[in-house]
Amino acid sequence: MLRLSKSCLAKVEKDNVLSVLDREYLGMGSEVKQFEAELSNYFDCPTACVSSGTAALHLALQALELRPGDEVLVQTITYVASFQAIAATGAKPVACDIDPCTMTIDLKDAAKRLTEKTKALMLVHYAGGVGQLSDAYSFAKKNNLRVVEDAAHAFGTLYNNSIVGSKSDIACFSFDGIKNITSGEGGCVTTNDRILLKKVEDARLLGVENDTSARFQNSRTWEFDVKKLGWRYHMSDVMAAIGRGQLSRFEELSTKRKLIASYYDASFSGQQRVSFFKQDYSSIVPHIYPVKISGMTLETREVIRKKLYKKGIQTGIHYQPNHLLSYFFDSTARPIINAEKIFPELLSLPLHPDITRSDVDYVVSTLLDLV
Asked: Which of 255, 296, 312, 334 is deepest in the core (most CB within 10 A)?
């Protein structure tokens, strides 16, 4: 089976984990401290590690002190984590349309959905791409909005020669098992807003003030105060050990992703029925490889997916429009034209560092035979 995505581990990650196990301190400690330092150096921006990308989004939004009734603009085609994190603060995720070329937020549509309750703009970086990021920040500044970048897909991507997350208002990354780097589970928040980052650091440890410094000494704070709501969202040393190994290998891992995505592009070039999203892989590190199959319906897509699976090819769908999910269903949001039109045509093909050119040849030829 050619897996859609997978963790790609080497000896360094395994040795790092064994070293942590030998020390018999598995919680948040010196290994997390070191991983944070290495990430902060990589981004050239202060960084806090947490237990997941969703936790990163939740803590970042909570640190903005959103309240029930507040609204956050976010594109509807994203993983449900983006919407759940907003809702977890009591705020309302306001579904916006997407630019069909970049699959990032359509700012013209977002402008129509602005109200006096709008407090923030969540930018979802899709498949490693970031769309018109400068325009989005200009939009936010004009409307006095904070910006939270859901950069789960975009670790290592460059925009205007800067690493995504290095100059962001707030950027949130995921390190789950299939991301551009993994720590098994995990994520991080990057921001130059030191006050906000301090809120994230305390909130990840149940709101216990200044417990981070104690944990980094493999200790605990036993006498403390809690002034704000917090969560058990900290990263463990075992997770950090994996992440540190992955970060040391990132040039290798990202190069393989770029080469495979570029080869997919070349293989699909000139095809009438199957089209791809044009990305500049000199600056973008692709997390997924979605294609569009013109004229495909939900029913025909499922038939194609089942046939591909029988031939040993696993596929995915990135993503369902959130405004059509039962919990977030919003009839007033419709029509969201681009998202609803493109969703049935989306199909994600296998992409990870262990995919080979011959694997791509097989995937492409098999798919083209079916469509």
From this structure: 296
